[in-house]
Amino acid sequence: MTIEVRVPQLPESVADATLVSWHKKPGDAVARDENLVDLETDKVVLEVPAPAAGTLKEIMFTDGAKVTSGQVLAMIEAGAAAVPGASAPAIMAAPGGAVTPAKDAAKPDAVAAKLSPAAKRVVEENKVDPKAVTGSGRDGRVSKSDVVNYLSGASPPAKAGAAVPGARGTRAEQRVPMTRLRARIAERMVQAQATQALLTSFNEVDLKSVNEIRARYKDQFEKQHGVKLGFMSFFAKACVEALKKFPSVNASVDGNDIVYHEYFDIGVAVSTDRGLIVPVLRDADFQSFADIEKSIANFAARARAGTITMEELTGGTFTITNGGVFGSLLSTPIVNSPQSAILGMHKIQDRAVVIDGQVAVRPMMYIALTYDHRLIDGREAVQFLVTVKQCLEDPARMVLGI
Questions:
Q1: Top-level CATH class of 1-108?
Q2: Mean local confidence (pLDDT), 253-279
Q3: Which CATH architecture has domain 182-400?
Q4: Per-residue model confidence as pLDDT tens digits over 292-325
Q5: Residue 16 known to be catalytic
């Protein structure tokens, strides 16, 4: 019996997906639920599993093709055994609709398994031996940046009769297409700058109390909840308290209307080798510190593995981004439209500060709030930051709701 493999249903906001790479070739045996192909959307890479065990009979689209919800990607002959030594390419439709031979892709091996979807695409486009690229990720996982760095450092073959450059070295360039995620990020950032009246206010926070709580309870917290007590749960809770006091920071502009959100869905920016994505903590006001830390750890792991879902990246009423993990001391983050504000965390640095007339060394962090001045006044933005500061410098406020 022949079974169709179709593009999964895409969200309404996503018109199509790009076929990144096939993991099987026609004639290969496939197991039920085995990943056959990766599809890249504006936000995530989707894996398309085999609906049944059998043999991959035919592939309909080549790598790079754009596909839409419900389109047939491949045909599986259910229950059929693999064709021994099958290497003859099956016929498939090219992105433009023309019929071309399929690529004779090799089965995934241990090296290929360590390639992220974006890295695999660059490897294939530039005909790079993946074994020659050193991965910087966990367990040697190879990211797109690893491949690009390898290409930048590789010397191109010299032309016949041409002089070989001396001590100055090569001046190589590599041109690679933007991933859909990177192109979408670029589009949204430009859109935010063009459509919102963005302004940034700053403050600084003394994190001595937060550090003391984390040091005192970190072992007990991890033992009881199975996750480390980080900084993000404190900042998420502090932002919820501030958003409750200043609802315009949690609102958004829709045409000539202001939409006040009476819930607190906090987006937490996560860096991946494909770019920055923002999974959302739903109803953050009802989540405990442990709930928030578990959610963030889960989001980060699945975002970097490319298994996070579209629903988890959709929505959000406010965003927190932490440039401090990369060493940023101060920055002006860009609002994640259609939201109206974003909080930027930065590097914690010991600095001399004056407390009660005495100079003391404290762990200080600059925080920044970029906001849409059409909706949020400067007074509200400054008071929002002051509230976040007060909650972090005296965490009991978050417990007491004051």
A1: mainly beta
A2: 89
A3: 2-Layer Sandwich (3.30)
A4: 999 999 998 888 777 788 788 888 999 999 999 9
A5: no
Residue 82 clears pLDDT 60, i.e. is over it: no
**Does the active-site annotation cover 373?**
yes
Over 80: is that where the pLDDT of 86 sits? no
> How crowded is the C-beta side of 68, counted as CA atoms within 13 Å?
3
Residues of the chain with CATH 3.30.559.10: 182-400
Task: Single out the catalytic residue among 109, 283, 377, 394.
Answer: 377
Judged against a pLDDT cut of 70, whether residue 13 lies above it is answered with no
Which is more confidently placed, 192 or 350? Answer: 350
The CATH superfamily label for domain 109-153+173-177 reads E3-binding domain (4.10.320.10)
